[in-house]
Design goal:
The complex is a heterodimer of chains A (428) and B (130). Chain A is of the alpha/beta class and 428 residues long. Chain A is built from 19 helices and 13 strands. In chain A, helix 8 links the parallel strand 5 and strand 6. In chain A, 52% of the residues are buried. By secondary structure, chain B is an alpha/beta fold. Chain B contains 5 helices and 8 strands; from the N terminus they run E-E-E-H-H-E-H-E-H-E-H-E-E. An 8-stranded mixed beta sheet of chain B has the order 1-8-7-3-4-5-6-2. In chain B, strand 4, helix 3 and strand 5 form a beta-alpha-beta unit. The interface between A and B is medium-sized, with 32 and 28 residues.
Chain lengths: 428, 130
């Protein structure tokens, strides 16, 4: 096999098959992949692993064969890992017989996948979330740690907000790197690869809705890295609660265009250290204003022909909510109920979050009791995967999440509109 | 009149065949999910800018190789995206299934090729469209 990456003796031994044929294929695939993207060498992975592969999709047949071969040969990730959320939640999100059949048709290998993830070294039963980096999950990468992650919203958060370093790796390449404990060094693992090519300046009266702002920037930057100025005017400089939530949600939408990193002036770790030097010499400039964001929000289509629709469900939490966001949504929904003279939600309303985040929230006994009494439900599922089941798409469903709207063709509403819909059971 | 283009060899091979063209970035998961598209690309030389961002595109391409629905070759006008790259490399190393691939052929290549065009790929990375 011809290759360009410089390998040490241990790596060469694996490549020559001295540790077995399966590890040889793993090494060969990763070396060829690294060569394609100009990697010169491997660097050790120094943080936790998180993989995108959490859906037991029937179409992943060939991946299952590879996992079987790895398990048969006793190959595991070097350290335990987390994965994305499950595509359904039988316990908390009830479905009809027809929907169950449709889910089975698409995700019929879910139990089998979960067994295989156990054999490969998944952290625990709570390891299914797209926000594995939150404190509650206890798997947060440190700044400057080297990772090989694969889910775009998690990758962008790790890079931007935590200051860790990961490229957007495809599924299986992520697992292979975790098995080897190393990853080809290129792109976002290098200083040069982390420079911003766009200078984005907020010229708005208030902090924009992060779901809309992320979309507006994504449409301009088209996969490139932005350096965003003006956020600290509204949300301060310390990454905690409100600011953390805004960066998480904005980044998730931004990642849909292929962007895997952003910097925020005075706020994100590298911007704090290096400031505007993180921008290339002549970056493209994008000035965001309120009018443009309002136009963008108004442009989101309704997937329904009728008006005054009664939604079948509301999903909040894509990406998964933080504890702070659950508290925010609880009080926002309570306010909506009070305004409309109600005590219970009028449509099934699901707050989606990591199992460990939900568990933490439930330790707030008083608030959790009020949430339960209002009929608000928690789930750890992935609403995108759940909604993509064709039978669910036939139902009118509402959300506050732009990333969910883009992926599952359901109706987006802002927070205040959504709280009214949840209370009245009627769309505006 | 035929036109010749040169790109970077991703997977080496010589092949003559018929083009299936995607003018926009293609979501590789559609190869298994949409039968009409599957019919259009199966065994053909798929010409595209690159694949669209999707989490499972590479794995779907891998399954398409296993089930006999994959294109015979993939020609990219841009640099190869990570999903296509993983699918092609996984198929080669784990299924012994070769999808011949050349990338960085340039926009002019994509402008010149039409679905149904005859294409010759050489193992040097030269692509001749007639």
């Amino acid at each position: 096999m011809e290759f360009k990456m410089q390998l040490n003796q241990e790596e060469l031994d694996v490549l020559e098959g001295k540790q077995g044929e399966t590890l040889q294929k793993i090494m060969k695939t990763v070396v060829q992949y690294g060569d394609l993207y100009g990697a010169k060498k491997f660097v050790p992975i120094t943080g936790p692993s998180h993989f995108a592969t959490s859906f037991g999709l029937q179409h992943l047949e060939a991946m299952f064969d590879i996992l079987d071969e790895m398990i048969k040969n006793g190959i595991k990730a070097k350290t335990s890992f987390t994965v994305n959320p499950k595509p359904f939640d039988k316990e908390h999100v009830k479905v009809t017989g027809g929907q169950k059949g449709a889910l089975r048709k698409i995700y019929g290998r879910q139990s089998e996948l979960e067994e295989k993830l156990n054999a490969l070294g998944i952290k625990d039963n709570h390891a299914y979330t797209c926000t594995s980096y939150l404190d509650e999950v206890k798997d947060t990468p440190a700044a400057d740690s080297i990772l090989a992650w694969s889910y775009p919203p998690s990758v962008i958060y790790a890079n931007a907000v935590l200051g860790a370093k990961t490229n957007l790796n495809p599924p299986l390449i992520d697992l292979f790197c975790a098995v080897l404990g190393k990853v080809p060094e290129y792109g976002l693992l290098t200083d040069e690869g982390r420079k911003a090519t766009w200078n984005v300046v907020l010229n708005t009266r208030n902090m924009p809705n992060p779901h809309i702002l992320g979309h507006a920037i994504a449409m301009k930057t088209q996969g490139e890295t932005p350096y965003i100025q003006g956020v600290e005017t509204f949300l301060g400089r310390r990454i905690e609660e409100g600011l953390q939530d805004a960066l998480k949600d904005m980044g998730a939408v931004l990642s849909t265009s292929g962007t895997s990193l952003f910097h925020v002036d005075h706020i994100t770790p590298e911007a704090v250290k290096m400031g505007k030097k993180l921008m290339v010499e002549h970056p493209q400039v994008y000035i965001v204003d309120d009018e443009e964001l309002a136009d963008l929000e108004l442009s989101y289509p309704s997937p329904w022909k009728k008006k005054n629709v009664k939604p079948a469900a509301c999903f909040i939490g894509c990406p998964h909510l933080t504890t702070n966001q659950i508290e925010y949504w609880a009080s926002t929904i309570f306010r909506g109920l009070k305004m409309h003279g109600k005590t219970k939600v009028s449509i099934p309303t699901y707050l989606c979050a990591a199992p460990d985040v939900i568990a933490r929230f439930k330790t707030n006994y008083n608030l959790n009791t009020k949430v339960e009494e209002a009929g608000i439900q928690f789930t750890g599922l992935c609403p995108v995967a759940f909604m993509k089941n064709s039978k669910m798409l036939l139902k009118p469903v509402v959300t506050n999440s732009n990333i969910l709207r883009m992926n599952a063709n359901i109706r987006y509403y802002n927070d205040s509109e959504l709280s009214s819909i949840i209370a009245t059971g009627r769309c505006l | 009149m035929s036109k010749s283009f040169n790109g970077r060899v991703v997977t080496k091979g010589n092949l003559s065949g018929t083009a299936a063209v995607a003018a926009q970035k293609l979501d590789l998961t559609k190869i298994l999910e949409h039968q009409a598209l599957q019919k259009d690309v199966e065994g053909k030389i798929l010409c595209l800018p690159s694949a669209a961002v999707s989490n499972f595109g590479g794995l779907y391409l891998l399954t398409a190789c296993k089930t006999g629905h994959a294109p015979a070759a993939m020609l990219f006008s841009d640099s190869i995206d990570t999903e296509s790259a993983s699918g092609i490399l996984l198929a080669s190393n784990w299924l012994n299934h070769i999808i011949i691939a050349v990338d960085q052929l340039g926009q002019e290549f994509l402008n010149s090729v039409k679905s149904g065009s005859k294409i010759e790929i050489k193992d040097t990375g030269e692509v001749i469209v007639s």
